[in-house]
Amino acid sequence: MEIKSLEYPSLNVLLLYQSPRKNYRPIIFSHNEIFASADCETEIEGDRIRSIQTPVGEYDIEPIIEQIPPEQKPDLLIVQSDATRRNLPTNLHLLSCPKLLLLGKTNYFDAPIQTLLDYARSQNFDVVISESERHHLHYFKEAGLKSVLWLPGFNVNPYPQLPHPHPTYALCFLGEVGRFHRYRHYIQGRINSGELSINPLDQTSEEAARIYADSLININISLNGDLNRHIFEVLASGGFLLTDKLSQQAGLNLLFQANKHLAFFRDEFELNYQIKRFLTNPETALKIAREGYEEFWNNHRPELNVQRILDYLNGNRIEQIYQIDKEKRSLYLISKESEDLCNRVSIYEYLQELHRNEPRLQGLFWLDVDPGIIGDAVDLPRLALHLIWDSQEETRDDRHLWAECEISEQITFTSSSQLSQLSKVWDFIALTWTKIQSLNLEWLLKTLNFRRLIITDPPSHIQEEDLKKIADHLERFGLIKHRDYPVVYDWKRKSDWGKFLLSQQELYSAVRAFEAALQDNPWDITALLELGTISFKLNYFHEANRLFHKALSLDRRNSLAMEKMVSVLIALNQQEQATGILEHLLTLQPNNSALWSLLDNCYQQTGLEQKALAAYRRSREITEGKSLDPQSVDTLAKSSVQTTPKRILVINNLYPPQELGGYGRRICDFANVLSDRGHSIQVLTSDAPYLGLIESSEEHIDRSLFLCGTYEQLPPEPFEDETEVARILEHNDRVIRAAIQNYLPEVCLIGNIDLLSHQVFTPLLENWIPVMHLLGFPKTGYYPSQTPQSLLYHVGANSEFGKETVLSEGYPLANNLSIVYPGAFIRQFQMCVLPNFDKLRIIFAGLILPYKGPQTLVEALAILHDKGMDFHCSIAGDTPVENVIEHLKNFTEARGMSDKIDFLGYLKRPQLIDLFAKHNILVFPSIWDEPFGRVQVEAMAAGLTLVTSGTGGSAEIIEPGISGLTFPAENAEALAEALSSLIGDRDRWQRIATAGQQRAELFNIDRSVDAIETQFEELLRQRESQEEFLEFQLLKRQAELIETLRLKEINLVIFPQWFQADELIIFQLKQVIQTLANHPNKDLITLLIDTTHGDEESAETTVSTVVMNLFMEDNIDISEGPEIALLGQMNELDWFALLPFFSSRISLNPENQEAITANAADGIPPCTIEQISKMRAVNPDSL
Prior knowledge:
There is one protein chain. The protein has seven domains: 13-150, Rossmann fold (3-Layer(aba) Sandwich), CATH 3.40.50; 169-300, Rossmann fold (3-Layer(aba) Sandwich); 360-416 and 425-492, 3-Layer(aba) Sandwich (Rossmann fold), CATH 3.40.50.150; 504-624, Tetratricopeptide repeat domain (Serine Threonine Protein Phosphatase 5, Tetratricopeptide repeat); 647-819, Rossmann fold, CATH 3.40.50.2000; 826-1003, Glycogen Phosphorylase B (Rossmann fold), CATH 3.40.50; 1046-1173, 3-Layer(aba) Sandwich (Rossmann fold). Strands 3-4-2-1-6-8-9-10 form an eight-stranded mixed sheet. It has a seven-stranded mixed sheet with strand order 18-17-16-20-22-24-23. The protein is an alpha/beta fold. The N and C termini lie far apart (122 Å). It contains 44 helices and 44 strands.
């Protein structure tokens, strides 16, 4: 076919459009047109304006007009606008030329029809034109717009192609598959053909035309029942078009004939049939393509549409099919009031949005609904519209009305008596307020299984009190108000209705209600538990087991589900499985004596007598009023490595509840586990009230350290004043030394030293206290040159990645660096069953900051959402940076995912465990090189499947494809593909989850604490082997003994035999003390009395008696000397330190020779009492 050239006119035209110029053909209407848009630059060629940039949104046209030269004064104004509200020029009356409104899409977005109705009426356009939604134009005519036309394909940019008798591609899919194209996603996913296919989405219009012509079948799927531009583009290129069938009101059948110019399909089944048909008979497709090609170029090319507009403006006739004057609905279904029209539009827009999101709809109307509403709805092609027609209600000749409007065939008539026989699930039912009042609501709910209830009256026609009354009544049965205009109730909680029916002893109706609830929501735990309970009572134990297990797999911390699961397992004689669930249940209800008794019985049935006895005892203890700590409910009594209890000083810059991220929490967890193992813990940290107030007393936590900066903003800000920093470091040094002196730690566990400095190590290592420095990141907090040079300093990297990173930066730690994984409380996170793998239930848990990658997750979810994939995501975590969460929320709202994504804020560990119980995937999308990422292990332990970017140390947690999935950081497409792959193979998904749960055991916190204890033992062994340390210990102990025993220049010791008679001991002590009290240098003497083999308390009483008798009987006062001290339980080091200070040993008869020998005191020079008086003070410097 030879295509004749047609000319565009040359009148001056101002085009106020809303997209970039490149999206349109080179000439849109005239050779002398000015293109104006917010997405173009103002361009001048010589003395002529070619384009003008306009503001976005609503704007005054006057500044635009002022830029136009007189010779380009518009003869015609064309405004293109849609519901996005990007292009709403005002004050159009300033132009005297005809004004034409070209309607953009009115089949999606927020209030698309009402928005353009309001705008069209506000600017008094001469002509309103739609190119794709003919079926909406009757609203504009009814609203009083003067002239309304339909010009399909007005903006098409055609490219004729030579015929392709042997096309390269079998199938070509047309157009974008984005978030608004739910039906297109649905259809694409159900095409069975494996033939070669292509989608020219990113091609230019000319390149796309070549592909259309080179494809045997071009498949077009409308966004929402509209006549889109792809139809004309394909036909113009000579391609064969297979497109979804639209309603008769859309007008496609007025332009092209089925199987002559193109072909139709009604649903995915007919589509696959048609594909097979034309692949088998390609000559038929090519013949239809030629006919369609000729039809387009003969009757629908752009130049012809331009001419039609000019003819219409000049008062000439144009073809009847483009005029709406005789559109039957606009003649017979007219609203009397403007409010009624607005109400009809709002209801239609609501139904239209449902239609966009669902592959097919079932709707039920009552006869008294405004016929205009019913007539509007028939043009939704995938809506099966049913109308209740009861003869006793025929108060108007509606059947004739439907016939006049030519829509009778689009309505299925039924009667009230037939409703109970229809086993349909109605997507909505629509009825008037009057009908609701007259119907028995309980009858309605029992008879119909529906998802939404629409009250079709304008809200202003219903009293507010009545609305509230019906809302309360409906909410009792699980119907929740969803919209105010129109008034719509979603039946979201059908289980509430089922429970009401159960309370009324209507078992059959209740079962139907619960089953209906599960049809709408297969994850309705209440419905599953109620149906399971009914099955259990009827002795259908296997069915009850299935229902209870599914309920428990959806919420694995649900106590009621666990209790019911235990009951049915016992009924099935599966005590071993019941035991496992009971053990988990008792972590939630540790003081439930009935559960302990049941566990006792299960243990007995499985032959576990010792555990049965323990459970029995706990049951009795609770019965007697002794409550149990939930953490003590570990019936398996897990054991861990035991070491000698130690005094451990713990130092960290921040400490819970004041923390950022997980570093402080990790150190706190280690401290708590060490304490549980019998070690004594003293924590030394700072106080940062801006990170949280300390609301309770903190035993064993000292917040006296100061930080050399602040965490009030991120990144943290170090202080710049060197004098201030030096003052803080001196303060911290004093605090640490005081802690050493008062607490006497044997070892020290140090975490994050940021804003504390490496100087915290100095007082510890000077006092020979071994230091275990646990890194939370692949950095130490100091420079390599500042590395402590001590064998008592050891670093624990939190991953192999962290270890290698530290060594690669030149730290001299090759022999003092090991790996201590952060560790997770595996037992706390383990669940009694795996999660349900029916749909993606995703969680993100962590700081919400860009480097953690939450934006990658929501972008991936947008991809899944656009494909129509079902999922739910919970984002748990807080952020120290403003607007980060707000940005994510705005993104999810803009992409229409707000109902699928919850932002929960910061959660404590128990809340996080509860959240894990309801999810089956953890996405860890971190962008930076993560040190580790403990939350991943916690999630794996809980049975969640880990999908991780695997950066840094986090790569060590899973084996890709075996115990988890990985994807490249910042790659949302790859993450979406990984998530999709799980849904595509649920058996593989379950295998991965099971393997992940097992692998999590490798990172149990008990293993990490074992490593800490082992390293402390090794550090202590190294310390004990060093002579310098022994000398240090000796000097340190001597200093302590001098102070404790009040040693002086003359230190004398006696070894009484405490086994002899009291009278003899008192005589010996009195003789010695009396002699010393009379010595001229008594103020320089200390008498040390050994108490070996004696009772220290009795010895102290005896000495006190002697001193008192001397004072009372002989008037001898020893307050000026000598000092008297008892040598209590002295170890070998004490005696070794003390021996050099003894001046002499006073011989007694008898004396404790065994103690003298055991303590190496026989080397002390002996003397008698008589020799004491001759002894004088030694040189004080000798001490």
